[in-house]
Amino acid sequence: MRLLHLTPYYAPAYPFGGVVRAVEGMARTLSTRGHEVTILTTDALSPHRRYTGPMDEECDGVRVIRVPNLLARSALNLSTPRGLSRVARHALQTADLLHVHEFRTVENLIVTPLAERLGMPVVLSPHGTLTLETGRRAVKALWDRLFSAGVARRIDTVIGLTASEAAEAQALWRRLGASRTAFAVVPNGVDAGIFDALPDGRAFRERFGLGDAVVCLFLGRLHPRKGPHLLAEAFQRAAPEHARLVIAGPDEGALALVQPFVDRRVVVTGYLGPEARLEALAAADVFALPATGEGLSIALLEAFGAGLPAIISPGCNLPEAVEAGAAIETPPQVEPLAGALQLLLTDETRRTAMGAAARRLARERFTWEAVAVGLEQVYEAALARQSG
Do 359 and 372 fall into the same domain? Predict the structure, then answer.
């Protein structure tokens, strides 16, 4: 199968966002399964950073084509691609199916009409961005009034990361008057093999002065909706003296909320690269993500792969982790979080049992191989509908 993936930004081995890492995992695994995979993207990485490598290259068996932006990334987090229509026309000629990532993008406005004219099925992965609760509420509402109905009617299948996201998509599509779209659920995944040989966590512990403390890890973008400040406050209220909290990730507005709780027991590391992320997971004893409006966190799935018990919120959309005994679910509020922290940080036996359950869950349900099988089923169904 010849697959064209359209995404606003992409850079292998630069895990600055879950969407990028998800597209990388999908594309690489589909390629190893014999599909011809091309990624069409832009050179934007952030509002102030551009990709400086080749504009057309092969990465792990996947062709990556980039177009330049007028701006690295606009204040509204939208691309400004130059020449995308011309490049997309050529790329679509050698594809069987278009898979677009995120819904409200300039790229979709340009490329999905071209696919429609060719009679090509279009599959969408929103990656948890449909809800207005994930930010830019006013911009999303205006975008929906102006553009979303037309794009939605061109989508053959929407792939939710979870059943709740698929249901959310169905409700939005009804409001937009797009009645012929199908809906499916395919989760994010992890590369289970990397957890067979995690790096030694002792170097990470030494670097950040953690000693032999019991460590709770938050790993992700420091955005208020992910709740690092709530976790820091809860930790200060309830964690035992010998415990430490590590908050790792680039700041996106929540660092100032975390700072009042930073002391010798609460460590803020900033952004961690790929190897340092694995070191952090190896050094940790508990993972916590008290988020709202989450799609399906790859960082959380990686924590499960590393055998870490987790404290999660309903917004993580992962009730099966609770059912499997891998996580404690609590509202993203200080008092419930404090109770969950106190419970896990003081009970090694519970942590060990939950960690084993977490590892099993990741390997049985959330590998990229399993994700690729699910995607293939969606693609085949979409192509069958198009030909029928």
Answer: no
